[in-house]
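Below is a filled-in request sheet from our internal design queue. Each sheet records the structural input a requester submitted and the sequence that came back. We keep these sheets so that new team members can see what a complete request looks like end to end.

REQUESTER: design group, bay 2
PRIORITY: normal
MODE: inverse folding
CHAIN LENGTH: 198
BACKBONE (tokenized):
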């Protein structure tokens, strides 16, 4: 365990804006744990600038916590951060304690079980699962069966870039694609859930 801590000394990202601007988030060196790139985060949160204030968010594959803590910094009322790896959740707790944020709740749980048991309504969901597991459509399916969406809820998806990407991602009838872009080998998309389209 001690060796693992030493290996994470330089593994950190900065919060870009908001009340925690410039503060560092430390993360563990683990397979498939890759914080969302600064350039992508900046673009994403520009897209979301009018949706964050007083919002309820879920960061369903928290990993480094870069997306969830950024949302918390920028005015979200509540951020639910979920990860199945207990080491990752402990690291997220250390960050939460260091940042002294009270609007973040952590869950050591897998995404499917969390969705099934979650009873609140949300305004924003971050979906950035491990690329190697190729589970984005499974998670979207679970979400589509849930009742957790407020109208106009935004859903952010980050996946490995591939040809005809939008055709390979399952899109529920109530979801509308608002924005999409790419950076290197990463594609990222922003959808909106509309109750009128159900």
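RETURNED SEQUENCE:
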């Amino acid at each position: 365990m001690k060796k693992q801590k030493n290996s994470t000394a330089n593994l950190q990202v900065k919060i870009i804006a908001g009340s925690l601007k410039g503060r560092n988030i430390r993360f563990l060196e683990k397979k498939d744990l890759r914080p969302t790139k600064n350039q992508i985060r900046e673009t994403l949160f520009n897209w979301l600038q009018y949706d964050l204030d007083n919002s309820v968010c879920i960061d369903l594959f928290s990993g480094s916590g870069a997306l969830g803590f950024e949302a918390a910094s920028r005015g979200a009322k509540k951020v639910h951060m979920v990860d199945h790896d207990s080491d990752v959740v402990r690291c997220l707790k250390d960050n939460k304690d260091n940042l002294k944020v009270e609007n973040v709740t952590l869950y050591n749980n897998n995404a499917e079980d969390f969705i099934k048991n979650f009873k609140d309504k949300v305004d924003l969901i971050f979906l950035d699962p491990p690329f190697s597991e190729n589970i984005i459509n499974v998670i979207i399916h679970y979400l589509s069966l849930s009742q957790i969406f407020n109208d106009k809820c935004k859903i952010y998806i980050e996946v490995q870039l591939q040809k005809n990407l939008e055709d390979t991602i399952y899109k529920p009838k109530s979801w509308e694609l608002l924005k999409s872009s790419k950076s290197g080998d990463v594609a990222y998309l922003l959808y909106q859930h509309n109750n009128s389209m159900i």
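SHEET NOTES:
- Residues 1-9 have pLDDT under 50 and may be disordered.
- The chain is about 30% helix and 30% strand.
FILED BY: M.R.
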